[in-house]
Design goal:
By secondary structure, this protein is of the alpha+beta class. 52% of the residues lie in helices and 14% in strands. The strands form two sheets. The chain has a two-stranded antiparallel sheet. The chain has a two-stranded antiparallel ribbon with strand order 3-4. Helix 1 packs antiparallel against helix 3 (100-124).
Length: 130
Amino acid sequence: MPDVIKETITTREDNSATEEVPLKRDATSYQTAGYLVYFVFGLLEILLGFRFVLKLLGANPATSFVDFIYNLSSVFVAPFEGIFNASLAKGDVTTSVFEPATLVALIVYILIAWGIVALIRLASGQQQND
């Protein structure tokens, strides 16, 4: 368990009651870089998750929101297309698409984010406890 820096504070005016509370520490630049990587890749994962669900539910690509999601995410899914074939399920009104390329992209980008953060932690030279 890491050592926690504590500060003694006085809770009464007569100085009779004191307690120790942990001090807040600012994140190092390496930690901030790691948080930024997780934030950016988290946004990408959300985008790809939306794409996967919209395709699976057969969302209408003529609507502006669905079209926006498909166009924005297609750049990130393109490297993984063709690895597995997509499955189509045609209904009366919609066509549901199970798109494995999006699932592969989700997994690959999670691993890339984890690897980048691991490299940042190695470069920091500090032991991380999480």
